[in-house]
Amino acid sequence: MALRTRGSAALDKAQRRSALLKAIDENLDLGYGLTLEAYDRLIAETRAALENYNKLLSETAESRKILTHMDRTLSDLSSRMLSGVASRYGRSSIEYIKAGGSPNFRHFQSTPSQPPQSGQVPSEQNGHPANQVSI
C-alpha cells in the first residue's frame, strides 16, 4: 500500500487570502499581532512543514520497497542454506535439525506400533463391529 502525500486546503485558502489582503495594504497591521507579515511567515512555515512531510513519506515508501526486497532475498537465502545442509547431511540428520529443519519423525520412531496381543480382537474397526472370532 503506497503512502499518499497530502495537500492542505487551509494552506491554499491562506495563500489566496494573503494575496487579497495585500491588495488592501502591503503592510497591513490590524493590531493584536494580526499583521500581514506574521500571516505570510506562518504560511511559509506551514508550506515548509507540508513539503517536509511529503518528502518523508516518499523516503518511507522507498525504504519500504528496499526492505521488502531485502526481506525476500534473505528468505530465499535462508531456504537455500537449509537445502544445502539437507544436501550435504541429509534431511534425517542432526545437522539438518540444528539448522532449523523439521525432523522426519518416521526415521526417529523408536518402536513401531504394537499389534494387538493374541486372543484380543478389537471390538470395532472403522466404525463397524468386527467379526467376533474366538481364538
Task: Summarize the structure in short.
The chain is built from four helices and two strands. It is an all-alpha fold. Helix 1 runs antiparallel to helix 2.
Into which percentage range does the β-strand content fall? Answer: under 5%
Low-confidence stretches: none
Major sheet, described briefly? 2 strands, antiparallel
> How would you write the strand order of the largest sheet?
1-2
**SSE ordering:** HHHHEE
Could you tell me the number of beta strands? 2
Structural class: mainly alpha
- Helicity range of the residues? 55-70%
How widely separated are the two ends? 71 Å
Description of the molecule:
The chain has helices at 9-24, 36-89, 94-98, 105-108, and strands at 124-125, 128-129. Strands 1-2 form a two-stranded antiparallel sheet. The radius of gyration is 38 Å and the shape is rod-shaped. Helix 1 runs antiparallel to helix 2 (36-89). 59% of the residues lie in helices and 3% in strands. With 135 residues, it is an all-alpha fold.
Keywords for this entry:
135 residues, mainly alpha, two-stranded antiparallel sheet, 3% strand
Please write out the topology.
Layout: H1 9-24, H2 36-89, H3 94-98, H4 105-108, E1 124-125, E2 128-129
Antiparallel strand pairs: 1-2
Helix pairs in contact: 1-2
